[in-house]
Amino acid sequence: MPWQHPPSKYVPVYVLTHSPPKRGAGWPRVLSATLVMGLACMNNAVAADADKAPFGLSWGPVTSVPRPSMADREGNVTALFYFDGQAPASGPDTQQVVLEVCRDEGLQQVIWVSQPFPEAELAAKYAPIYREGVRRHGEPLKDPRPDTVLWPTSRTLLAIRAAAGARKRLIMIATGDRYETCSAAHEIATGHPASVHTSALLDP
Q1: Structure confidence at residue 105 (pLDDT)
Q2: 106: Cβ contacts below 8 Å, ≥ 6 apart
Q3: Domain residue ranges in the chain
């Protein structure tokens, strides 16, 4: 399960949060373009523990993070992108991982996006993740959005969303306990809460 083990290459956080990050298409635009993201190891997946972040990381202030493929900052949040094949975005079913690091609260969200799957393969990819979430955290709550469930105690969300070519992706999002504080500060700085970015990804 790749997300349970810390990657081998790290970069000091201050390089990413206190100096201009390398910019690509822009954080909100990149997230919207990918449509769906989440967190899991698809072949042997488990939901994140409430007090632990995935990939061997911890919620809150961190001194180093895996070196990202790309970084983008908006307001008080720096989004670190890891593309397919670069730890922690490893595993055959992984397309992308995003870490959201808040200026004051540290790491507060981990987003994982799967590769797109044909409809016929979706159930086999979804079932192990759902079962492990139930084993660890009990039955989830059904979110008002379609094809979305939530484990409130672990602050973990699992969703299915459409992808190009009549395929589907799985989203998992794990959130730290200070994310709402970070999101509120983001709204003061930018005019919208940080949660807008992930909410857009979950639009049906």
Answers
A1: 96
A2: 59, 60, 61, 62, 176, 178
A3: 2-201
